[in-house]
Every structure is written in structure tokens, then in C-alpha cells.
Write a structure and sequence with these properties.
mainly alpha, 9 helices, transmembrane helix
Length: 240
């Protein structure tokens, strides 16, 4: 229950902040732009609408999550000494922040899928609705972005806003190059920033070359657990 109360406190802190508004407004603005382009160029098909998810990932999986993590951590930057004076395990406080940002990431991706569906229905997109992609893409996004989101949050807590945005910018560049072009065909499995971009191909890999799917999933779990363990251990020992 302590962890749930911690998450509730995090949501209360974020409810009027840019961190929360990014979850609502960024997908909406992206879909308005994508929908207008597809409608005016007469390319309104469900396949093209689903491709907008990949474009959204270019901006959000590295750069956007880094910005959101930096903003959330920056809110507590000057208040950790007061927060840690409370009778709550320090690891619980950091864990609550992690879980809150992961929930926001999942809601962000689900909201974008809902907007894809609404746009396609309102503008009479051609073809068949890709229900599997609409439901699976947000879950896969949350899974494969999770370790980097935790890393950004830890870095923002330890080093501040600038370091996090810098790493996010590098991640966006590396992820786009290795995750969406042939440059990364041989190495993308070893680059966490490329994983979210390659997940549409992973569904096909499940039936043809399942180790390609298994490695990123296992690596995601291992990297997530490692970041959690190291960051919480660091947080408990740090003097504020």
C-alpha cells in the first residue's frame, strides 16, 4: 500500500505540470498533423495511419520520454531532503516515481492508438482496421522503452535536466538511424534505443526467426532490473 500511496502522491504533484500535459497534448497534436496530411494527400488508409505510430515513436521513445522524466525529476530536485525526512523507505519513493512515469508512458501510447482509431473512423480510412497493431503497439512500446525511461529518470535525479535531455537527443538520433534504416540490420538487437522502432518486425520474426524476438525481450527485462537495482541502491546511499 505504501507504494500505491506514493504513486498517488506523484500523480497529485504532476496533475498541473507540463509532465502530465505532455501525455495528453503531444499525441493529440501529432495526430492532428498526421490526419491533416493524410486527408489532404488522399492517403487516408489504415496502413498509413498505423505508420504514424512509428513516426510518433521517433519523437517520443527517446526524446519525449527524456523530457518527461527530466521535468518530473526536476520537480523534486530541491525537495528530496524534505521528502526523505518522511518515515518512508527511500527506495519506495523512487520506485513510486518510476511506476508513475511508466503508467504515463502506457497511457500516452494507448491514447495515441485511440486517436488513430478515431481519426480513421471519422475520415473513413480505406482498408481494414489493424486491431492487432492498435492494441499491441502501446504494450510493446511500453515494454521496450521501459529501461530507457528508468535510466532517464535516474539520470535526471542524479545529474539534472541538461544531462537527461542530452542523452535523450543522442538516443533519438541513434534509435532512428539503427531502428528504421538498413544501417542497423546487424546491430539493432544490441542498441536499446532501436528496440521500439523494430517491434513491428518482431511479430514477423516470431514465426520465422524467434531468437530475434527473444533477445530484445530478455535484454529489456535484464536491463530494467539492473537499472532498478543500481539506481535504488544509489538513491539509498546518497546524502541530500
Amino acid at each position: 500500500m505504501t507504494l500505491l500511496r506514493g504513486m498517488g502522491a506523484e500523480f497529485l504533484k504532476l496533475r498541473r505540470s507540463m509532465t502530465l500535459w505532455l501525455t495528453v497534448l503531444f499525441p493529440l497534436l501529432c495526430m492532428l498533423a498526421f490526419g491533416w496530411y493524410l486527408a489532404t494527400t488522399h492517403r487516408m488508409t489504415w496502413d498509413n495511419l498505423q505508420e504514424t505510430f512509428l513516426i510518433w515513436l521517433v519523437f517520443w521513445s527517446a526524446g519525449g520520454t527524456a523530457l518527461q522524466a527530466a521535468l518530473a525529476a526536476n520537480m523534486d530536485g530541491q525537495n528530496w531532503r524534505a521528502l526523505l525526512a518522511r518515515p518512508v523507505e527511500p527506495g519506495i519513493q523512487l520506485g513510486a516515481k518510476y511506476l508513475t512515469l511508466l503508467v504515463l508512458l502506457l497511457l500516452h501510447a494507448l491514447w495515441f492508438s485511440v486517436l488513430i482509431l478515431i481519426t480513421g473512423l471519422l475520415l473513413h480510412a480505406e482498408g481494414e482496421i489493424l486491431w492487432g497493431s492498435l492494441l499491441g503497439a502501446p504494450l510493446a512500446t511500453t515494454l521496450f522503452v521501459m529501461p530507457m525511461l528508468l535510466l532517464y529518470t535516474w539520470l535526471a535525479t542524479a545529474k539534472g535536466f541538461g544531462w537527461t535531455i542530452g542523452l535523450g537527443g543522442i538516443g533519438m538520433l541513434v534509435g532512428t538511424l539503427l531502428g528504421t534504416t538498413s544501417m542497423g540490420d546487424a546491430v539493432w538487437m544490441y542498441v536499446p534505443w532501436a528496440w521500439p522502432f523494430r517491434f513491428p518486425m518482431m511479430a514477423h520474426a516470431l514465426s520465422t526467426n524467434w531468437p530475434q524476438l527473444l533477445f530484445p525481450v530478455v535484454a529489456t527485462v535484464v536491463l530494467t532490473v539492473t537499472v532498478l537495482w543500481v539506481s535504488i541502491r544509489w538513491f539509498r546511499r546518497r546524502e541530500w
